[in-house]
Structure formats: structure tokens, C-alpha cells
């Protein structure tokens, strides 16, 4: 018996297609010649999402379950819901983008707080789509086109006691020379800090931090082609640095430690990085514990964003940082990196700082001076998960890592045949 081509095993080359965004599916449809009108109808039906909702009242959870089932999706709830033995439950809603949006429409007409839940569902779906679209971050006269590449933030520590390079650039001239060298190596942003935030570090007096940071900013602003970020949580330091021409504030406290800092940033109209940290640098590593590390950090950052907006800071000028190494164990840090894409739920640019940190030393058993490869691995995976900015010491090498990762993930680099 003779078999035809179509009867042979594998004749149709069946394979799984990895779809993370609606743009991915739209691309696949274009490749096979689907009409644009048909693609517009089918794309929302082909992208599957899972959204977690926390502390949902019992009656609302039951209605969510019914609504998701009626729209072709599903909702998972605690088994205590069936016996009506709980007042609240977390809920996992699962379905295509189309099913989830239709369910949100239905829930918005229901009681028991479901209108607010529907709004949150829509916001998460919108944020996921927005992250795959080009966006512009304005830093005074500079602009960064987010989504096109990963930007390199080079670290300049004007301190005697930073964990990695303390004392190497503690003078104004040394710091200025180092910043120029980092720009030559590929830095897109220079981040200047005058206080070590390593675990166990004590706070530096404002006058001392000003004396370290401001002369460096003043020297660099008229002389370099990239924006300058000031790494501080003190309003007075930020105010002086911005007056000297700095373009951005990188705040490890997410506006919690100096209530005036939000006002200073808002008045200057510059971007701000809001980072998650438990406690203070001097005590943040004392038995850090989370019941849900990703959920708790996301909730913290949502509150921080609301706090920033209440100060008058524009949402389009807010960057979030999950705070690798700030009040986390190695296991916490690895989980954050593994699930970094979940922070896209906020629809904001993501900054990641893993450079030379102790999690790398503990995983690989290496001192600070030998953590280059470990840093490279974390940077590449952060880029793959959607990081917009990576904060690093070894700019020359990490710029290459990011460029290669961008070529794979974003397809933006021209490659020779």
C-alpha cells in the first residue's frame, strides 16, 4: 500500500506556538495570511490569561465563578466556599482575553463590590497589552523609548562603604571619571548615590550626602550626553541635585522615609523609581518573611504608586523596582526574578538591580569580585521577562548581555547573515 504525502507521520509539521501577547498571535496570523478583519476578531480569543484576585467576599466569589463559566472561562476558589465556611477567598480567574473582558463587563453590573473587581480585571488586561507597546519616558531634555531596548543604568557610588565598590570613587574627580568611563562603555543613564544601602548600613547625615553627591552632579550635567539619576530617599538631597540639573530620582524607600520627597519630584516634573524594601537598610535582612512574596510586593508597589500620584507625580513618570536584595532571602530573590513578568500587571516600566548582589554570591559561592557571570545570567533573564532598565556596575559587559538578549526577545537588533 502506498501512502500519500499527507498520510506520512509529521507531514503537517504540527507544533506548539508560544503566545505571550496578542501581538504574538497577530504575527502568527499574518504569517499564514489571515485577513486583518478576521485577525481582529480572533486574536482576543486566542490569548489565555490567569488573574489572581485577593480577599474576595464570599458572595462576590460565587458570582465571579458563575460569570466566568457563562463566558467560557473558569474560576478557582478555596474549597471553603462550597461549604460557606469562609467570609473571603482568593480567586484565580482563567480564560481568553475575550472571555475575561466579557466577564468583566458582566461583573460590572453586579452587586457586592463586583464593579470595582471588574475595573481591576480590565486594568490588568490593559496593562499587559500596554507593556508590549512602545512608550516614552521623558527625563527633562532626554527621552527613552521604552519597549525598543533595555536601558543600562550605570552605578556611581560616591561612598566609602558600598558593598561592591566602596571607596573606589569616593572623591568628586574619581566619581566623575568613573561616570564618563561608564558612558563610554554603553551606559544610558548614570545613577549617583552618596549613601550606602547595603544590609546593615546606617543612614548618612544630609550634609554629608550633599557634599558627596552635588559636586559630582554639577560637574557631569553640562558634560555628558545621558541623563543623571540621583539615588536618594532624602528630599533635601533630591532637591539640590535636581536644581543642579539631575534628571531623575531613584528612591529605595518608595516615598516612605521623607514625606516631602514626593512633592520635590512632582514640582521638578522628573521621573521617580519606587522600590520595594522591608524595613530599613540597617535591619531589612533580619529574618525577612512573606506569606506571598510576589503578591505582597505588588500590593506595596500599588500603594507606592498611589502615594506618588497623590503628590502630583504623573503616572507616566513612575518606574517600579521589586527591590532585589532589600529585605529578601535568596529564595525570595530567585522567585522575584522567575516571576518578574507578573509585575507588568501595574503597566509601568520595570527597573531591576541584581549587579554583584549577595544572592549571586550565595548561589554560586563566590565573592563580590567574581560575580560577573552570575550578574549576566540575571540581567539576561530580567530582559526576557520585560525589564526596561537594568542597574549595573559592569556596564561594558552587561550592555553586551542586554543587547544580545534584546535581539532575541525584542528582535530589534540587525543581525549579519
Question: Strands, helices and their partners?
Answer:
Elements: H1 22-31, H2 36-46, E1 48-57, H3 58-70, E2 74-77, E3 88-96, H4 97-107, H5 114-130, E4 135-139, E5 142-146, E6 151-157, H6 172-185, E7 189-193, H7 206-220, E8 228-231, H8 235-243, E9 248-251, H9 261-268, E10 272-275, H10 293-310, E11 318-321, H11 330-338, E12 351-352, H12 358-364, H13 372-384, E13 389-392, H14 395-409
Parallel strand pairs: 6-7, 6-13, 7-8, 8-9, 9-10, 10-11, 12-13
Antiparallel strand pairs: 1-3, 2-3, 4-5
How would you explain this protein's 3D organization?
By secondary structure, this protein is α/β, with parallel strands linked by helices. The chain folds into two domains: 47-130, Ribosomal Protein S8, Chain: A, domain 1 (2-Layer Sandwich), CATH 3.30.1370; 135-409, TIM Barrel, CATH 3.20.20. It has helices spanning 22-31, 36-46, 58-70, 97-107, 114-130, 172-185, 206-220, 235-243, 261-268, 293-310, 330-338, 358-364, 372-384, 395-409; strands at 48-57, 74-77, 88-96, 135-139, 142-146, 151-157, 189-193, 228-231, 248-251, 272-275, 318-321, 351-352, 389-392. The protein has an eight-stranded parallel β-sheet with strand order 11-10-9-8-7-6-13-12. A three-stranded antiparallel β-sheet has the order 1-3-2. Helix 10 links the parallel strand 10 (272-275) and strand 11. The two termini are 44 Å apart.
Amino acid at each position: 500500500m502506498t501512502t500519500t504525502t499527507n498520510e506520512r507521520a509529521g507531514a503537517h509539521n504540527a507544533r506548539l506556538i508560544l503566545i505571550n501577547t496578542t501581538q504574538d498571535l497577530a504575527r502568527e496570523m499574518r504569517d499564514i495570511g489571515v485577513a486583518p478583519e478576521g485577525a481582529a476578531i480572533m486574536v482576543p480569543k486566542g490569548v489565555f490569561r490567569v488573574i489572581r484576585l485577593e480577599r474576595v467576599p464570599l458572595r462576590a466569589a460565587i458570582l465571579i465563578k458563575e460569570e466566568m463559566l457563562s463566558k467560557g472561562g473558569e474560576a478557582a476558589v478555596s474549597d471553603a466556599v462550597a461549604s460557606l465556611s469562609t467570609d473571603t477567598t482568593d480567586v484565580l480567574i482563567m480564560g481568553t482575553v475575550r472571555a475575561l473582558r466579557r466577564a468583566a463587563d458582566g461583573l460590572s453590573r453586579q452587586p457586592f463590590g463586583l464593579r470595582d473587581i471588574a475595573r481591576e480585571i480590565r486594568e490588568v488586561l490593559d496593562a499587559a497589552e500596554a507593556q508590549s507597546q512602545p512608550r516614552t519616558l521623558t527625563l527633562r531634555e532626554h527621552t527613552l523609548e521604552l519597549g525598543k531596548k533595555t536601558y543600562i543604568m550605570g552605578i556611581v557610588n560616591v561612598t566609602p562603604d558600598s558593598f561592591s565598590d566602596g571607596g573606589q570613587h569616593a572623591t568628586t574627580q574619581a566619581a566623575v571619571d568613573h561616570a564618563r568611563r561608564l558612558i563610554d562603555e554603553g551606559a544610558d543613564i548614570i545613577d549617583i548615590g552618596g549613601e550606602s544601602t547595603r544590609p546593615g548600613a546606617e543612614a548618612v547625615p544630609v550634609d554629608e550626602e550633599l557634599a558627596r553627591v552635588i559636586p559630582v552632579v554639577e560637574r557631569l550635567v553640562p558634560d555628558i550626553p545621558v541623563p543623571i539619576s540621583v539615588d536618594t530617599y532624602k528630599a533635601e538631597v533630591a532637591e539640590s541635585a535636581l536644581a543642579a540639573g539631575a534628571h531623575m530620582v531613584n528612591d529605595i524607600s518608595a516615598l516612605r522615609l521623607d514625606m516631602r520627597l514626593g512633592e520635590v519630584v512632582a514640582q521638578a516634573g522628573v521621573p521617580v523609581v519606587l522600590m520595594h524594601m522591608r524595613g530599613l537598610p540597617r535591619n531589612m535582612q533580619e529574618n525577612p518573611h512573606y506569606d506571598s512574596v510576589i503578591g505582597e510586593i505588588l500590593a506595596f508597589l500599588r500603594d507606592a504608586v498611589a502615594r506618588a500620584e497623590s503628590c502630583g507625580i504623573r503616572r507616566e513618570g513612575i518606574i517600579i523596582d521589586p527591590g532585589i536584595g532589600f529585605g529578601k532571602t535568596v529564595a525570595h530573590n530567585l522567585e522575584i526574578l522567575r516571576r518578574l513578568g507578573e509585575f507588568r500587571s501595574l503597566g509601568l516600566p520595570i527597573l531591576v538591580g541584581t549587579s554583584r548582589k549577595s544572592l549571586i554570591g550565595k548561589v554560586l559561592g563566590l565573592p563580590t569580585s567574581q560575580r560577573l557571570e552570575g550578574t549576566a545570567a540575571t540581567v539576561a533573564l530580567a530582559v526576557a521577562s520585560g525589564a526596561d532598565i537594568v542597574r549595573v556596575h559592569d556596564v561594558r559587559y552587561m550592555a553586551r548581555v542586554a543587547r544580545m538578549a534584546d535581539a532575541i526577545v525584542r528582535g530589534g537588533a540587525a543581525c549579519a547573515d
